[in-house]
Each structure stands twice: as structure tokens, then as C-alpha cells.
Amino acid sequence: MTQRRVKELIVRPATGAAALEAMEVRAERFAAYFTEPPFSFVESPAYWLRYLMDLYGRTEEEVAARSAMFFDVLDPDQGESMVGFSGCVRHVDAAIIDNTQIGHWGMKPGDGYNIVTCLAKAAQHTEDGQGRTIYRRLMDARHHHMVPSNEGQIVAPDRRLWVRTAKGYAPVTRTFEHAGYSEVPLVDPAWAPHKDLGGNDWDCVIWAVRPDDVRAFYQSDSQPHVPVRTSSAADGVEHRA
Fold first, then answer.
1. In angstroms, rounded to a whole number, what is the distance separating the alpha carbons of residues 8 and 127?
2. Where are the alpha helices (DSSP H) in the chain?
3. Minimal CA–CA distance to 26: which of 74, 96, 64?
4. Strand 5-6 to 126-127 pairing
5. Interval 204-217 mean pLDDT
6. Run of H or E including 149
7. pTM for this predicted structure
């Protein structure tokens, strides 16, 4: 059994200019994390920097339109260095759908997208004093941001939140299944995913959930998640793990 550590790590939201400034560091963490199975990506940090910015946005205006957010994991024992992060987009647009190709599974403009979550090995099995893992804290923080619809925007009643991961990657798929996600089949089974889907030639699986069906990730807090209908649910709030 993996030994879990009790340690205080900071989980801090970042959007707009603050998030754009740290994008290169996230790309480095991304590249290091996804070199291992089941992904085994060989792309450079420069590749992942382009990938993240394609999804997150390159300007504050683009970030705001997509309502994109990162949650960075900082280690106070290492000068608040970034040891991981999680990212999401509350409202995808045509460019994101084209980039990810998830439109072939039914993603539509206005849906939400779980961009990525990656943690350094030293932080992957870290718990807080209440026995909650950093990974699950990131998942819930992300959903508190993704579930609401932006004020003034018209959102389809069938809006869904999406995630993509490697087929058979049980630690991740179990977590999302617990939160209410279910696997989504291809709209057109004859379509063959492009080689570069997800950054490499890998066997991916697409999962989605409607916002009203999202459940909390914490086993100890398994009551249905109640959406917070505001456009600033996570903005400017610091969460400590």
C-alpha cells in the first residue's frame, strides 16, 4: 500500500495575466508528468506550451471569453515552487473543439472541458489533515469553477463537462465515474481519430457529465454537488490543502 503523507500544499487559482505568466512552468510539469505510461508522450515542453495556450487562450480577452482557469499546486517548503496544476475551460469555442476533435463525441460550443491535471510524484499521494488527497481537491476546485454558466451567456440545456484520458487508466476513470461522468461513444463510429489526438498516437477514452449530475469527488463528502450559479465562484479564492 502506498504511504500517504500529511503536508500542507497550497492550491491557488490563477486566471488572466497571472496564469499566462506561469504557462511555461506548467508546460514543463506537463511534459515531465506525461512521459510515463500509459501516455508515454515524448513531446517537448515547447509542444505542451502551445497545446495549453491553444486551449486556455493567449490573451486576457480570450481567457475571459472562455472563462478558463488553472489551479496551481505550490509547495511552501520549496519556496512555493509549482509541483502540479489542474486546468479547465468553462466555455469551449469552435477553436477548442477543432483542436481537441472532441466534437466527434458530441462536444458543442459552451460546454466545459477539463484540460489537464498533473502532479509531481512527490505530491501525488499527499493528503491533508482530513485525509483528502491533493488530486481530489483539485478536481472539486475545478468543478466549482466549471459547473456554473457565465452570466449573460446563452447556454444550451444539454451543456456537458468533458474529460479525455487514456483507455484503461483506472485511477483516473474511477475518479471521474465516482463524480458522475460516463463514457461517451463516437457520434460517427466510422471516424478514425487523427494520430495527433491528445498529442500522440494513444488510445483515448472520452467521458462527460451534465453539470446538474456532478457529484463531489471526496468520498467523505458524497452528497450531490450543488451548482453555484455565479460567474466568479472560484476567482480570487485561495484554497489550502
1. 8
2. 16-21, 23-33, 45-56, 60-66, 94-100, 121-124, 134-146, 170-178
3. 74
4. parallel
5. 83
6. none
7. 0.80
Q: Which residues contact 61 (CB under 8 A, 6 or more apart)?
A: none
Q: How far apart are CA 92 and CA 181, in angstroms?
A: 18
CA angle (47 as vertex; 42, 52 as ends), nearest 5 = 120
Q: How many residues does the chain have?
A: 241
Dihedral-angle region of residue 80 (phi above 0 means left; psi in -120 to 50 means alpha; beta otherwise): left
pLDDT in tens, 97-124: 998 889 989 999 999 999 999 888 878 7
**What would the DSSP string read from start to end of 212-224?**
GG-B-S-GGG-SB
Q: How many C-alpha atoms does 150 have within 13 Å on its Cβ side?
A: 16
pLDDT tens for residues 143-156?
888 888 665 555 66
At residue 94, the pLDDT reads 95
Q: Which residues face 208 on adjacent strands?
A: 162, 182
Q: With contact defined as beta carbons under 8 Å apart, do 71 and 240 qualify?
A: no
**Beta carbons within 10 angstroms of residue 104's beta carbon:** 18
Burial of 156 (0-12, 13-18, 19+ CB in 10 A): exposed
Q: What are phi and psi of 81, to 5 degrees?
A: -70, 150
Q: How far apart are CA 197 and CA 116, in angstroms?
A: 14
